Amino acid sequence: MPVLNSNNAHISVWGADVASAIDSLPTQDLTVEMWTKWIGGGSDWAGPISVSQDDGSTEYGWNIQTRCKDTSGSTVSCAESRRIEFSLSTEGSNAAEGSNNGKMAYLGYPGNADRCTYADASMTEIFAPIDGAWQHLAYSYDGISTKAYVDGVLVQQDDVTSSGAILYPASTYSAGQGGWFTIGAYHDANEYYSFPGAIDELKIWH
């Protein structure tokens, strides 16, 4: 079981292996699941896995990341609260933007229908336990519906914002510390936020 801290600890696919990784990644039907143990502290945007390019308005791939927000949406210390989000770039989200350089929908990002439209108004944000408890996270996408499960329970669903194939970065794209498939950090060309905690039984399904 990899144990990752906030000191640039991560596992990354890079160089010639990236082209092979692209061929192995789900192109439409995707499920990613893992056990996570969050530790208070770390940085805003830190997350357990990043498979993306998110450089300004250019957004491809998908991530699980966190924002240091409380239940009111206010910015707080990362040691106090972490809201978990799943970002995903698809043909549908890209077409909605119209600029053809990728656009991520953010499941778990409240109050912005341009980024996330909940299937049920009663659905709410996911917050990471920062008391050292293990939490099981699973996110799925089937070409229309994006869903989030916590400990096996469906807690979020968006059937509007994303559709069609998943859009990935080009194989020639390189994030700041090599590669763009990274376990243990939110990682792109101009950002690196290491995941503060532990990850176990990470699985990616087609």
List keywords for this structure.
206 residues; mainly beta; 6-stranded antiparallel sheet; 15 strands; globular
**Quick one: how many beta strands?**
15
The radius of gyration is 16 Å
Largest sheet: 7 strands, antiparallel
- Count every helix, treating DSSP H or I runs of 4 or more residues as helices: 2
Quaternary structure of the protein? single chain
Distance between the termini: 23 Å
Percent helix? under 10%
- Fraction of residues in β-strands: 35-45%
| Structural class assignment | mainly beta
Shape: globular
The string of secondary-structure elements, in order, is EEHEEEEHEEEEEEEEE
Stretches where pLDDT is under 50 for at least 5 consecutive residues are: 1-6
Average per-residue pLDDT, rounded, comes to 85
Describe the structure.
This protein has 206 residues and is mainly beta. Helices cover 7% and strands 41% of the residues. The strands form three sheets. Strands 2, 4, 5, 6, 7, 8 and 12 form a seven-stranded antiparallel β-sheet that branches. The protein has a six-stranded antiparallel β-sheet with strand order 1-15-3-9-10-11, with no helix packed on it. Residues 1-6 have low confidence and may be disordered.
Protein topology:
Blueprint: E1 3-4, E2 11-13, H1 17-24, E3 30-39, E4 49-55, E5 58-67, E6 83-89, H2 91-97, E7 104-107, E8 126-127, E9 131-141, E10 146-150, E11 153-158, E12 181-183, E13 185-187, E14 192-194, E15 197-205
Antiparallel strand pairs: 1-15, 2-12, 3-9, 3-15, 4-5, 4-12, 5-6, 6-7, 6-8, 9-10, 10-11, 13-14
